[in-house]
Specification:
The complex is a heterodimer of chains A (365) and B (525). With 365 residues, chain A is mainly alpha-helical. Chain A has 15 helices and no strands. In chain B, a hairpin with a 4-residue loop joins strand 1 and strand 2. The chains are: A mainly alpha (365), B alpha+beta (525).
Chain lengths: 365, 525
């Protein structure tokens, strides 16, 4: 039923802006500081975080700018005009595969953290299954609802982050952060690789741009949205290093959760704050998963030329679940996540650059 | 063609039609258009025969004095004001020819009665049997004239009704004391008294295939978004049932999703609440025979608002709203949190508290989940029993219940004292929700959350919370997203959401219903 413009399946400026941090901030942030701390000295890790962040900010702005030149066209429509229908279908299928792998790695990461901090008895298979079922339920619903959900969850996620940061501040030691700029170039380079993986996810704009109500404003909104994860990451990273010091951080598996563990709420009515933190962080992961999956499903439905997304969701989600349970040990899970991260990065970059170059040659932009 | 046999046939046909779900359009039309005969006796007999001459039907004929004209009057005893029928209809008609000679033509006499003689405001002419029957059943007095194939429908309705009193289901400390009653006309008057705007509109529908009840859609033209109005009217037109005894039937027929535990229509007994909704750009649906009127579209935040928030000063309004939002969370999540903490995450409870909880749980034979289920279940039983009992013995349930779920249960060692506190807090919080229908929805969710917490602890609770959110974001009320103005976000509406801004600052009507005229107040100089 179409009654009000805002109730349609359209994405408003605000929703697009919030969708960016929602999709970028996921389960990766829980372990990210460890990887960066291993490669850098003191709190120097903020430099690769900022550099990578700015890089992605400009890239996402550029992508949005490029895609916004084809207003009211789905990805299949505009990419078919640029590189032909067959190639476009291949691109979409490639994206769908990456989506399956990506959500699988999220599910697994989440289940592992839950096992570590929430319950040691319940098998991760059950934890993962419940999460996947929830993702199915969400994605089977209306598309606008997914963006609304991001809008609802985002303030909660940001609040819990700020609470954790604020209440850990009293243990912050400046000595842990200093001295600055002591890392060598190789360290920065290695840390960049880990930082970059924390920012991927903006590829969804390739598919969602057709739904954006005002495409002309989209690049600006996407860029503003990308600022949020940069700020969150840097704050978290610097505070974690300031509290634990570089050496300890690089030995913690999930430094961000450990940070929450360190928090003592005044009045002490709750202990073990990390359980609350992690449980609320599930919302952040969840919005990331649903937007990812739905973007993939949206691409696939456009190939089939109908609007029935439920069958596709029901085909993809068992795949997600099985893939997520394949790696047996933590190191494989991390390897899996790393491989996925790089492939999505390479994929997004190559797809967009191919599209851009071909469009340029053909004089379409 | 014999008129009487036609009536008999029509009556049979009418009964058959009512039994059939699908009405045959053609046959129905012949019945509706069956015209009155110009023989008075035929008409009187036909009407009596239609209803099989019930006890409360009054039908008599009388003569106009000094003229050879017979009249018939028919009404249902108890639905009309008999005194007025005598004084304003029968007496003037009988004496119509006392001063002037009546005209010869029956048509002219009829017109004279209509224009001149009958001293009542609302008089209409009826031509068909259907007009007459519907009017008669809704309490109109029918005046027939021999030799005339039309009837005068004289509105002298009056019946016993409850006087306007304070609404029982929604009380306020400060605010108007009047509530809606069972009479549609009185309710419309009340709305009209609150909104003295020439653009206030009352669209009328007739609901019910057998019992034709009036239903009025009230709104202010120029504020309401036409799409909302069109959609509400469209849905009302699809209603096809025998009878709608209460507005709940209407609500359940026109709501967007009947699978949802959340009401997508708000009901109220308070005219001031209905009037405020109308002025905000919403539709109010009033049904004859019930004091509960419906407000559409509804959003979740409507459920946590009370008219009194606006009557008291803004600081109080704001604080009370925050309290209610907290209450909503306690009402849904508290028992679940208790279960999760006691069963799965004991380490999260500060050690001193953990020890005292453990000490009180000593000897309790059930796991926390069963304990909570027992207590919350008992609470529901108490609530239901308290609501159904006659008022005189209603207090008993309070005393007995207080003992059962309080002291006795603890002393018997069935539940722990902390559990009693949790359940009591939970119940109090759910009673702090001003909208009863939403409060019930929360009571349902409590059980779902408890099961989730009993199975998966905090993880279960957060998944449950996400499920509720998925459901809410997909839900709509007359096309308006149920989670508006949170998401889709209308920052301007945040002035009247968890916060209630000072009155001079609330200059706009809520944006999420897209009112055509969005300015509700000006700056004022």
């Amino acid at each position: 039923m179409k009654h009000f413009e805002y109730a349609d399946e359209k994405i408003t400026d605000k929703e697009l802006m919030i969708a960016m941090p929602s999709v970028v901030i996921g389960v990766g942030i829980l372990s990210m500081p460890k990887k960066i701390a291993t490669e850098t000295e003191a709190a120097d890790g903020w430099i690769p975080l900022v550099v990578a962040g700015l890089l992605f900010l400009f890239m996402s702005w550029g992508f949005a700018k490029f895609v916004a030149q084809f207003p009211n066209q789905s990805f299949l429509e505009y990419s078919s005009r640029i590189i032909g229908r067959r190639a476009s279908i291949l691109i979409i299928i490639g994206y769908a595969i990456l989506v399956v792998l990506g959500i699988a790695s999220q599910v697994r990461g989440l289940a592992d953290v839950a096992k570590e901090y929430l319950f040691d008895q319940t098998p991760i298979e059950v934890v993962g299954l419940l999460y996947v079922l929830l993702v199915i339920y969400a994605v089977c619903g209306s598309r606008a609802a997914l963006f609304r959900m991001s809008m609802l969850f985002f303030p909660i996620v940001i609040s819990i982050t700020l609470i954790v940061l604020a209440f850990s501040m009293k243990e912050f030691e400046l000595g842990n952060v200093m001295p600055a700029f002591t890392t060598d170039t190789k360290g920065y380079f290695e840390a960049m690789k880990s930082s970059i993986r924390s920012y991927i996810g903006f590829g969804i704009i390739l598919f969602y741009m057709v739904l954006v109500k005002r495409p002309a404003k989209a690049p600006k909104m996407v860029a503003i949205g990308m600022v949020i994860p940069i700020v969150v990451y840097i704050l978290l990273y610097v505070v974690i290093i300031g509290i634990f010091g570089n050496a300890i951080t690089s030995n913690l598996i999930y430094p961000t959760v450990e940070l929450a563990k360190n928090v003592s709420i005044p009045g002490e009515f709750l202990e073990r704050f990390e359980s609350i933190f992690f449980v609320i962080w599930i919302m952040a992961t969840f919005t990331s998963s649903i937007l990812f999956l739905d973007a993939g499903v949206y691409g696939l439905t456009s190939i089939l030329g109908n609007n029935r997304k439920i069958p596709i969701v029901l085909i993809l989600s068992p795949l997600i679940y099985f893939v997520s349970m394949v790696p047996e040990e933590l190191q494989y899970v991390q390897l899996f996540g790393m491989v996925w991260g790089y492939s999505l990065l390479i994929y997004t970059l190559s797809v967009v650059s191919i599209l851009m170059i071909v469009a340029k040659i053909r004089g379409m932009i | 063609m014999n008129f009487k046999s036609l009536i008999g046939r029509m009556k049979k046909m009418n009964q058959q039609q009512n039994q059939k779900q699908t009405q045959n359009q053609g046959e129905n039309q012949t019945f509706n258009q069956l015209e009155l005969s110009d023989v008075l006796d035929d008409n009187m007999t036909a009407i009596k025969q239609f209803m099989e001459n019930p006890r409360d039907l009054v039908a008599r004929t009388f003569q106009i004095r000094n003229a050879n004209v017979t009249c018939g009057i028919i009404y249902i005893d108890g639905l009309v004001n008999g005194e007025l029928v005598n004084n304003d209809v029968i007496k003037p008609v009988q004496t119509a020819a006392a001063h002037d000679k009546l005209p010869d033509a029956t048509m002219a006499v009829f017109d004279m009665l209509f224009q001149d003689i009958i001293a009542t405001g609302d008089v209409k002419k009826g031509k068909t049997m259907d007009d007459v029957m519907n009017a008669l059943l809704s309490g109109t007095t029918i005046l027939l004239l021999d030799g005339m194939n039309q009837a005068l429908l004289i509105d002298l309705k009056k019946w016993e009704q409850r006087s306007v009193g304070e609404p029982v289901s929604e009380t306020v400390i400060r605010g108007p004391r009047d509530g809606f009653v069972e009479n549609l006309q009185t309710n419309l008057t009340q709305v009209r008294r609150y909104i003295r705007d020439v653009n206030l509109r009352f669209d009328t529908h007739q609901i019910g295939r057998r019992s034709k009840k009036d239903l009025v859609v009230a709104y202010v033209d120029g504020i309401i978004h036409p799409d909302i109005l069109k959609e509400v009217n469209r849905r009302l037109k699809t209603i096809d049932m025998d009878d709608a005894p209460e507005s709940g039937f209407i609500e359940q027929w026109i709501e967007d999703s009947f699978l949802s535990p959340f009401p997508q229509v708000i009901n109220t007994e308070r005219p001031d609440k209905a009037a405020t909704a109308i002025m905000q750009g919403k539709v109010v649906i009033l049904l004859d025979g019930t004091p509960f009127v419906l407000i559409m579209p509804a959003t979740l935040d409507n459920a946590l608002q009370s008219p009194e928030d606006y009557y008291e000063r803004w600081t109080i309004g704001t604080l009370v709203r925050m309290l209610r939002y907290t209450a909503a969370f306690i009402a849904v999540f508290l028992p679940a949190l208790y279960i999760a903490l006691v069963t799965f995450h004991q380490e999260m409870i500060p050690s001193n508290l953990a020890f005292s909880i453990a000490a009180t749980r000593e000897g309790v034979p059930f796991p926390a989940f069963i304990e909570a289920l027992l207590m919350v279940g008992t609470m529901e039983l108490l609530r239901e029993a308290g609501a159904r009992l006659p008022r005189t013995i209603g207090q008993t349930i309070g005393i007995v219940g207080g003992l059962v779920i309080g002291d006795a249960a603890v002393q018997a060692g069935i539940v722990s004292p902390i559990m009693v506190i949790v359940v009591a807090l939970n119940a109090i919080a759910s009673f702090a929700i001003p909208t009863y229908s939403v409060s019930i929805a929360f009571r349902i969710l409590v059980f779902g959350m408890m099961i989730a917490a009993g199975a998966f602890g905090l993880y279960g609770i957060i998944l449950g919370y996400i499920v509720i959110n998925i459901h809410l974001t997909n839900l709509k009320s007359v096309g308006v997203p149920y989670t508006a103005p949170f998401a889709p976000t209308f920052l301007k509406d945040f002035k009247d959401l968890v916060f209630r801004a000072p009155v001079p600052l609330m200059q706009k009507r809520p944006e999420y219903v897209k009112p055509q005229d969005d300015q509700s107040a000006n700056k004022g100089d």
